[in-house]
Amino acid sequence: MKIADIEIKGALLAPMAGYTDAGFRAVCSLCGAGAVFTEMVSAKGLIYDSEKTKDLLYTTPAEKVSCAQIFGADPYFIRAACEHKIMDKFALIDINMGCPVPKIVKNKEGSALMLDPALAERVVKEAVKSKRVITVKCRTGFYDSLSCADFVKRMQDAGASAVTVHGRTREQFYAGRADMEPIKKAVESVDIPVIANGDIKDKESAEKALKETGAAGVAIGRGALGNPFVFAQFCRGNASMTAAQVLDLHIKILSEIYPEKKVVNDMKKHIAFYVKGRKGGKEIKLAAFKAQSLKELEEIIRYI
Ligand SMILES: Cc1cc2nc3c(=O)[nH]c(=O)nc-3n(C[C@H](O)[C@H](O)[C@H](O)COP(=O)(O)O)c2cc1C
After folding, report:
1. pLDDT greater at residue 179 or residue 240
2. Is 169 in a helix, a strand, or coil?
3. 34 and 235 in contact (C-beta within 8 Å)?
4. So what's the pLDDT on residue 119?
5. Which protein residue's CA is at the shortest distance from atom 26 of ligand 1?
6. Where along the chain do the CATH 1.10.1200 domains lie?
7. What whole-number distance in Å separates Cα of residue 71 and Cα of residue 222?
8. Is 110 a pocket residue for ligand 1 (Cβ < 6 Å)?
9. Which of 32, 141, 150, 175 could cysteine-pair with 235, CB 3.0–4.6 Å?
10. Residue-averaged pLDDT of the chain
11. What is the pTM of this model?
12. Model confidence over 129-169: pLDDT tens digits?
């Protein structure tokens, strides 16, 4: 798949707040992800020089096709964020039009932009003026999926180079099965690449989604948590890395950004995914949640 002139091979790592940190993006890249997205960062936060926002945009050379995701609904701040120097290191900037969380929606941001396509268009048109490659990630709709294809077409016409569509409406949040039908209609309505997303967790579900939608590629979210190795099914990644090795690297990278206490806390939720459903997993998870230091956590990782 090509987005503007960026070649992307393999499946993409979807943006996930609290999870797609620089460490996880690096390990997913090493395992074969074709592109990796930061979690959504506030356009205003960046312009107001928030250190937290900048930390979320930390990258390492291990990251392959690094993509930043921003959120906001004010065209001025969106453009300013896209023009920010920190964005030089990203291959593209994705605009979040899918977040369902009430505090975001209340500000007309995230999925609320699907209720106001004229504003969404202005946001994209301003972003494009930054001369960066701009993409959009949306849902199939807010209340229903009737205008999905029309919305995606409007994003294309406003200048987006690709659109990722999560096959659920905002009303659905994360419940129910992702619906591929509106994504198919979106694919048919545009010339730019459409990336299918929702419930894709392995090669089989990816092939099914590609067949059903005709999409140019797939993005994997929850299916990659605790399982960055999933990307090796799509592209020649380093499939021989063990969970302990990827966790070590993940910790090493987070330690470049954050103090030990935060690294320990952030790693606990990742570790929980690595051991989910495994024999003895519950004990490992409990031990990890009790850990107070990286030394303790590193000991525990040896058992994963
Ligand atoms: C914990 C969590 C955080 C998420 N954060 C973001 C985000 O920051 N930006 C975004 O566009 N989507 C976000 N999403 C949505 C995912 O990118 C994806 O669209 C959704 O989970 C469906 O794909 P999946 O079934 O492969 O997980 C998040 C999802 C989860 C579960």
Report:
1. 179
2. strand
3. yes
4. 98
5. 221
6. 243-301
7. 20
8. no
9. 32
10. 97
11. 0.98
12. 999 999 999 999 999 999 999 999 999 999 999 999 999 99
Catalytic (active site) residue 99 = yes
Render pLDDT for 41-51 as a digit per residue (tens, 0 to 9).
999 999 999 99
Sign for the CA dihedral angle at 109, 113, 118, 124 comes to positive
Give the distance (Å) from ligand 1 centre to CA of residue 244: 25
Please give the angle made by the CA atoms of 194, 196 and 200, to the nearest 5 degrees: 160
Tell me if the domain spanning 2-233 has CATH number 3.20.20.70: yes
Which candidate in 28, 82, 99, 138 is catalytic? Answer: 99
From CA 231, how far away is CA 222, in angstroms rounded? 13
How far, in Å, CA of 171 to CA of 203, rounded? Answer: 28
Query: What would the pLDDT profile of 193-235 be if each residue is shown by its tens digit?
Result: 999 999 999 999 999 999 999 999 999 999 999 999 999 999 8
Identify the burial level of 295 via C-beta atoms within 10 angstroms of its C-beta, where 0-12 means exposed, 13-18 middle and 19 or more buried: exposed
62-116: per-residue pLDDT in tens?
Answer: 999 999 999 999 999 999 999 999 999 999 999 999 999 999 999 999 999 999 9
pLDDT at 237: 65
- Lookup: tokens for 238: 């380093």
Q: Is the dihedral of CA 278, 283, 289, 292 positive or negative?
A: negative
Contact 14 CB / ligand 1 (< 6 Å): yes
Q: What is the dihedral of CA 194, 236, 206, 170, to 10 degrees?
A: -60
Nearest residue (CA) to ligand 1, atom 28: 16
Which residues of the chain are in CATH 3.20.20.70 domains?
2-233
Ligand 1 atom closest to Cα of residue 110? 11
Secondary structure E strands in the chain? 2-3, 6-7, 12-13, 35-42, 66-71, 92-97, 134-141, 163-169, 194-197, 217-220
**Cα–Cα dist 156/150, whole Å:** 10
Q: Is 196 in the pocket of ligand 1 (CB under 6 A)?
A: no
Domain 243-301 class, CATH top level:
mainly alpha
- Please count the other Cβ atoms lying within 10 Å of the Cβ belonging to residue 105: 17
